Amino acid sequence: MNMNISEPHSHFVFVREFILLGFSYEWKIQSLLFSLFLTIYALTITGNGAIICALWHDQRLHIPMYIFLGNFSFLEIWYVSSTVPKMLVNLLSDKKTISFVGCFLQFYFFSSLGATECLHLTVMAFDRYLAICRPLHYPNIMTGHLCTKLVLICWVCGFLWFLIPIVLISQMPFCGPNIIDHVVCDPGPLFALACVSAPQTQLLCYSLSSIVIFGNFLFILGSYTLVLTAVQKAFSTCGSHLAVVSLFYGSLMVMYVNPGLRHSAKMQKVATLFYAMVTPFFNPLIYSLRNKEIKTALRKVMGSFNIM
Hints:
Elements: E1 5-6, E2 14-15, E3 17-20, H1 27-57, H2 64-81, H3 84-91, E4 97-99, H4 100-133, H5 138-141, H6 144-161, H7 163-170, E5 179-180, H8 187-193, H9 199-230, H10 239-256, H11 265-289, H12 292-304
Parallel strand pairs: 3-5
Antiparallel strand pairs: 1-2, 3-4
């Protein structure tokens, strides 16, 4: 496959597009994967969308806990949509190309939405800590104003967190080959394709990844340790959130907390699929199956559409 390149006024020959190999198997297997991924994607959008509709429809659930959950479901829809549609297109395409700009836009939105999710899970843990450990002060602390402010902080900080390293990586010379043996544009494969080494940029990228992953994860663990210490029976109400945290952070840590580890291409693809597609798929199931209020609200929404 010919490489699409351009020649600026330098001794480098720069790549104008990349080839995302993804899952390059025979046609029958790729068609099967397309059907599977499309089904998971559709169910993910439907499940998270149903939670948003249920929370919007039921006025009793317009409280901080469920506002955070509704925003989290909204975030999940955008998070999975930042990579899966292109993944599906590539499964049916022979070229599997993505433009230079498209690659870094995908990299930016995927990373930013992931960072936003990390921050949002932390805010949800903080909310549960206040509700269980400080029940008398909770209504005065977690006001609607603070709830809105925390949601906005998550989105703004998430979209600023990786901006500088992504800009720095985009300025690096990529002179070929232009083949990314991955399902998404990710820092590891991009660093490997660069013509020159950039240890400082690489250190900055993985340091920011470690901070946002470990920092938030430790805060969540600390919050639930205090919850368990204070009221052991109430800890069961946080099981849904802990399940989501374990799924999401577990797969992220495999990929990003130790840049010295050289994961195989297959391992990278499987791990990426897990936190990019599988986790958003399970989130609405985990939250709805363990929450009576959400199940009741979902029944009301479906009843209003004459589904039940």
